Amino acid sequence: MPLESLDLAFRAAATALLAVLAASLWRELNRQPVGRLAVALALGSAAHAATFNIGGSAAPSLAFAPLIAVATSDVVVLWLFCRALFDDGFRLRWAHGAIWLAVFGFSLISCLVLGPAGHARLVIVANNLLALGFVGLTLAQTIRSWSADLVEGRRRVRAFVVIAALSYGGVSALLQIAAGGSGPSELVNVINAAMLLAVVGAVALMLLKVGAGDVFAPETPRAVTEAPAPAAVAETVANRKLVVALTRLMADERIYRQENVTIGMLATKLSIPEYRLRRLINGELGYRNFNTFLNNHRIEEAKAALADPGQAEVPVITIAMDAGFQSLGPFNRAFKAATGVTPTEFRRLRLAAA
After folding, report:
1. How far apart are the first and last CA of the chain?
2. DSSP string computed for 241-254
3. What is the mean pLDDT of the chain?
4. What is the mean pLDDT of residues 51-77?
5. Where does the pLDDT of residue 214 fall: very low under 50, low under 70, confident under 90, or very high at 90 and above?
6. How many Å apart are CA 76 and CA 98, to the nearest integer?
7. Whole-angstrom Cα distance, residue 301 to residue 299?
8. Three-state SS letters, 128-142
9. Do the Cβ atoms of 124 and 182 come closer than 8 Å?
10. Which of 33, 49, 55, 138 meets the CB 3.0–4.6 Å disulfide criterion with 185?
11. Could you give the CA distance from residue 248 to residue 250 in angstroms, rounded to a whole number?
């Protein structure tokens, strides 16, 4: 089979799979921000499959330019998708849409103005450096929030989705920069299309096996339909003992006050493996993020101090630092997210009611 035909076949297969994924995700998860972002990511990837041309230097046609801009700005969607995937407190804002629109506009102007003016090489390098920048942001977000994630399913399956997308996105952008303007390479385009098809196929297979709702939707408790097995009863008793020990550790030693507290540190103190402590905090206490677990204890201590008339003259930042926060900004944001008011307002209301 000629390379051109093979390239077209790979592109068509990847586009078809992405269309099926987008339709399936929309049907199951259209009410969730992360589901909508996943649909947008699939559609943007389909635009990329239809338009990438490694080594090409000709200015795109008027019809292709918007598709190329959509494909370029898909890296912004990837970044937002990963933030929504790993950060339970993430909310889409107008600023995020403005960032996407800025990247889309830059790419569109590059295709319609700079490319035809003889700056094709500059356009290719600029657009793909922009893509690499957002890939880097996405990777940093993924790594930074990795250790605090307590949901085992999300750590495994969602990480696979993100890493696969990042691996292809980074390699594709680097190939575009290296070969930009040197003339289309049929072999490189075939390889790139095959890589894209492999990534999309792996994602489709995974969702087929586990279901999109299980990958992206928050975990919900399962109803017990029959008596638990003796082993399950023993595990439940053991977990309750560990919860008591963990609660005592947090209440008596106030370990959450220490700087750079890690889940590994707590696991060592409880003499259990780290993975078991993750399951315990997630399954028994209901927390999905380790930092949220720590901040809850810090905020409870801060609330008690702010409501204490005897500490009315103690600065808010002192109370925040004593509770384990490293600076005032994160404390204010976490406190307001938990209580609905700022620490100063909380103190005023409590002291007025005393």
Report:
1. 83
2. HHHHHHHHIIIII-
3. 83
4. 81
5. low
6. 10
7. 5
8. HHHHHHHHHHHHHHH
9. no
10. 55
11. 5
- CA 238 – CA 243 distance, rounded (Å): 9
**Dist CA 114 CA 153 (whole Å):** 46
- For the stretch 165-207, pLDDT in tens is 777 877 787 777 777 656 667 788 888 888 889 888 888 877 7
List Cβ neighbours of 322 (8 Å cut-off, separation of 6 or more): 257, 301, 305
Which residues, 6+ apart, have CB-to-CB distance to 188 below 8 Å?
54, 55, 175, 179
Of the CA atoms within 13 Å of residue 93, those in its CB half-sphere come to 6
Q: Find residue 149's DSSP bridge partners.
A: 289
Judged by DSSP in three states, 149 sits in strand
With a pLDDT cut of 90, the percent of the chain lying above it is: 33
Instruction: Give the ranges where 219-309 is alpha helix by DSSP (H).
Output: 230-248, 263-270, 274-279, 290-306
306, HSE (Cβ side, Cα atoms, 13 Å): 25
Mean pLDDT, residues 289-315 taken together: 92
The model's pTM: 0.80
**pLDDT score, position 168:** 82
